[in-house]
Specification:
By secondary structure, the chain is mostly beta strands. Helices cover about 0% and strands about 60% of the residues.
Length: about 190
């Protein structure tokens, strides 16, 4: 058996994935020194908890029995809720704010993956920086989301989503700095 820690909060609660003796991946959370397996909330043989907030609620991704991926959230009391995509088959939960809003990305009906937030289970697409795909990996209590997006010019750029607008973070760099903020190259699962 092995495990991978994905998230940690200020209380010392953790989120991650462990490989069971059956070879399947199981998302887990620890709260107050107790580890709880999240099992296979979407019915497949793989899940991971990617983040945990200050209240002990977590967000993650689980494989469904048909091979698609479903974002999920688990409350501090242990109730798991699967989160919908945006008309496509797949959704990925990567972060959770202290207010319980989940950030990640979800597939649209066209197959694109778009940065998404889920509030009380309702999905909201955040858009892109003019390209096809965008991916969210962080969210704070104010609802600001960070990630990266394909751009209209074919590359990628880091973004900040705030108050309904997606900003290319490269716009904050001084001209001639030699820096370019691209993607963190994380996996989409």
């Amino acid at each position: 058996c092995s495990s991978d820690l994905k998230g940690l909060n200020d209380n010392g609660d953790a989120a991650g994935m462990m490989i069971g003796s059956d070879g399947a991946g199981y998302g887990f959370v620890t709260r107050n020194g107790q580890m709880t397996s999240l099992g296979q909330p979407a019915g497949g043989d793989w899940s991971t908890a990617n983040a945990i907030n200050a209240l002990g609620a977590a967000a993650g991704v689980a494989m469904a029995s048909d091979g698609t991926f479903r974002a999920f959230t688990v409350s501090a009391s242990g109730q798991v809720t699967l989160l919908a995509a945006l008309g496509g088959a797949n959704a990925y939960g990567n972060a959770i704010s202290d207010t319980g809003v989940v950030a990640g990305h979800a597939q649209t009906g066209t197959g694109a993956l778009v940065a998404t937030t889920w509030t009380n289970g309702t999905a909201q697409a955040l858009g892109t920086l003019g390209g096809i795909n965008s991916f969210a990996y962080a969210i704070n209590a104010a609802g600001q989301v960070a990630g990266y997006s394909d751009t209209v010019h074919g590359g990628t750029a880091a973004f900040l989503y705030d108050n309904g607008l997606m900003y290319d973070l490269n716009g904050l760099l001084s001209a001639g700095s030699g820096w370019q903020l691209l993607a963190d190259r994380k996996s989409t699962r």
